[in-house]
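Researcher: We're teaching a course module on how sequence relates to structure. For the next exercise, students receive a sequence and then see the predicted structure as C-alpha coordinates, so they can try to spot secondary structure elements on their own. Here is the exercise chain.
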Amino acid sequence: MSGDPAWIEIDDEQYDEALAGMASGKLVSIEDGFAMVDPPAPEDPPAPEPEPPQPRTILSSREYLTRFTNAEYAAVRASESIDMQRAYDSLIAAQFVDLSDPAVGMGLDLMISLGIIDATRKAELLQPEPAA
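Model: And here is the predicted structure for the students to work with:
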Protein backbone atom coordinates (compact mmCIF):
# COMPACT_ATOMS: atom_id res chain seq x y z
CA MET A 1 0.00 0.00 0.00
CA SER A 2 3.03 2.27 0.24
CA GLY A 3 2.81 3.03 -3.49
CA ASP A 4 -0.96 3.71 -3.51
CA PRO A 5 -1.96 7.38 -3.73
CA ALA A 6 -3.85 8.96 -0.88
CA TRP A 7 -6.39 10.25 -3.39
CA ILE A 8 -8.42 9.10 -6.36
CA GLU A 9 -10.22 10.92 -9.11
CA ILE A 10 -14.01 11.09 -8.86
CA ASP A 11 -16.59 12.54 -11.21
CA ASP A 12 -19.23 15.18 -10.41
CA GLU A 13 -21.87 12.57 -9.61
CA GLN A 14 -19.55 10.82 -7.11
CA TYR A 15 -18.67 14.22 -5.63
CA ASP A 16 -22.39 15.02 -5.11
CA GLU A 17 -22.90 11.53 -3.68
CA ALA A 18 -19.99 12.05 -1.27
CA LEU A 19 -21.37 15.42 -0.07
CA ALA A 20 -24.87 13.99 0.42
CA GLY A 21 -23.46 10.93 2.20
CA MET A 22 -21.31 13.01 4.55
CA ALA A 23 -24.32 15.21 5.32
CA SER A 24 -26.22 12.09 6.40
CA GLY A 25 -23.37 10.79 8.57
CA LYS A 26 -21.65 8.44 6.11
CA LEU A 27 -17.89 8.26 5.65
CA VAL A 28 -16.19 8.53 2.28
CA SER A 29 -13.72 5.74 1.61
CA ILE A 30 -11.19 5.60 -1.20
CA GLU A 31 -9.82 2.22 -0.16
CA ASP A 32 -10.40 -0.13 -3.12
CA GLY A 33 -12.07 2.75 -5.03
CA PHE A 34 -14.72 5.30 -4.12
CA ALA A 35 -17.36 4.13 -1.62
CA MET A 36 -19.71 5.47 1.03
CA VAL A 37 -19.60 3.53 4.30
CA ASP A 38 -21.35 3.70 7.62
CA PRO A 39 -19.20 5.01 10.44
CA PRO A 40 -18.14 2.40 12.95
CA ALA A 41 -20.62 1.85 15.75
CA PRO A 42 -19.65 3.78 18.85
CA GLU A 43 -18.13 1.63 21.53
CA ASP A 44 -20.13 1.28 24.67
CA PRO A 45 -18.42 3.03 27.54
CA PRO A 46 -17.07 0.63 30.11
CA ALA A 47 -19.51 -0.16 32.87
CA PRO A 48 -18.71 1.83 35.98
CA GLU A 49 -17.25 -0.11 38.85
CA PRO A 50 -19.96 -0.72 41.43
CA GLU A 51 -19.58 1.24 44.63
CA PRO A 52 -18.39 -1.03 47.40
CA PRO A 53 -21.12 -1.46 49.99
CA GLN A 54 -20.61 0.76 53.00
CA PRO A 55 -20.64 -0.66 56.52
CA ARG A 56 -23.86 0.06 58.38
CA THR A 57 -23.71 2.48 61.29
CA ILE A 58 -27.45 2.53 61.91
CA LEU A 59 -28.89 -0.56 63.59
CA SER A 60 -32.25 -1.42 65.02
CA SER A 61 -32.32 -1.30 68.82
CA ARG A 62 -32.78 -5.06 68.86
CA GLU A 63 -29.71 -5.55 66.64
CA TYR A 64 -27.65 -3.34 68.91
CA LEU A 65 -28.78 -5.05 72.10
CA THR A 66 -27.62 -8.41 70.73
CA ARG A 67 -24.06 -7.05 70.75
CA PHE A 68 -23.98 -7.12 74.54
CA THR A 69 -22.98 -10.28 76.40
CA ASN A 70 -25.28 -11.82 78.98
CA ALA A 71 -22.92 -10.65 81.72
CA GLU A 72 -23.02 -7.06 80.42
CA TYR A 73 -26.79 -7.19 80.12
CA ALA A 74 -27.16 -8.56 83.65
CA ALA A 75 -24.82 -5.86 85.02
CA VAL A 76 -26.88 -3.12 83.37
CA ARG A 77 -30.12 -4.62 84.71
CA ALA A 78 -28.65 -4.97 88.20
CA SER A 79 -27.19 -1.46 88.24
CA GLU A 80 -28.65 0.90 90.82
CA SER A 81 -27.56 3.90 88.77
CA ILE A 82 -30.60 5.85 87.66
CA ASP A 83 -28.50 7.25 84.78
CA MET A 84 -27.74 3.69 83.62
CA GLN A 85 -31.41 2.71 83.90
CA ARG A 86 -32.40 5.80 81.89
CA ALA A 87 -29.79 5.05 79.21
CA TYR A 88 -31.01 1.45 79.00
CA ASP A 89 -34.68 2.51 78.82
CA SER A 90 -33.78 5.01 76.07
CA LEU A 91 -32.05 2.26 74.11
CA ILE A 92 -35.07 -0.03 74.38
CA ALA A 93 -37.46 2.78 73.36
CA ALA A 94 -35.40 3.88 70.36
CA GLN A 95 -36.36 2.72 66.87
CA PHE A 96 -32.72 2.68 65.84
CA VAL A 97 -29.21 3.22 67.16
CA ASP A 98 -26.82 5.40 65.19
CA LEU A 99 -23.31 4.35 66.17
CA SER A 100 -22.03 7.82 65.29
CA ASP A 101 -24.48 9.54 67.67
CA PRO A 102 -22.54 11.04 70.60
CA ALA A 103 -25.31 9.88 72.97
CA VAL A 104 -24.41 6.25 72.20
CA GLY A 105 -20.79 6.90 73.14
CA MET A 106 -21.90 8.69 76.31
CA GLY A 107 -24.02 5.69 77.33
CA LEU A 108 -21.03 3.43 76.81
CA ASP A 109 -18.84 5.84 78.81
CA LEU A 110 -21.35 5.52 81.64
CA MET A 111 -21.01 1.73 81.44
CA ILE A 112 -17.22 2.14 81.65
CA SER A 113 -17.53 4.38 84.73
CA LEU A 114 -19.72 1.74 86.39
CA GLY A 115 -17.24 -1.04 85.57
CA ILE A 116 -19.64 -2.87 83.24
CA ILE A 117 -17.36 -2.62 80.17
CA ASP A 118 -13.89 -1.27 79.45
CA ALA A 119 -12.62 1.08 76.72
CA THR A 120 -11.69 -1.83 74.43
CA ARG A 121 -15.20 -3.18 74.65
CA LYS A 122 -16.61 0.29 73.95
CA ALA A 123 -14.62 0.38 70.70
CA GLU A 124 -16.00 -3.06 69.77
CA LEU A 125 -19.58 -1.95 70.49
CA LEU A 126 -19.14 1.10 68.24
CA GLN A 127 -17.87 -0.87 65.22
CA PRO A 128 -20.13 -0.61 62.14
CA GLU A 129 -21.80 -3.75 60.85
CA PRO A 130 -19.89 -5.16 57.87
CA ALA A 131 -21.50 -4.50 54.51
CA ALA A 132 -23.64 -7.32 53.24
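Model: If you want an answer key for the exercise: The beta strands are 27-29, 35-37, 58-60, 96-98. The two ends are 59 Å apart (CA to CA).
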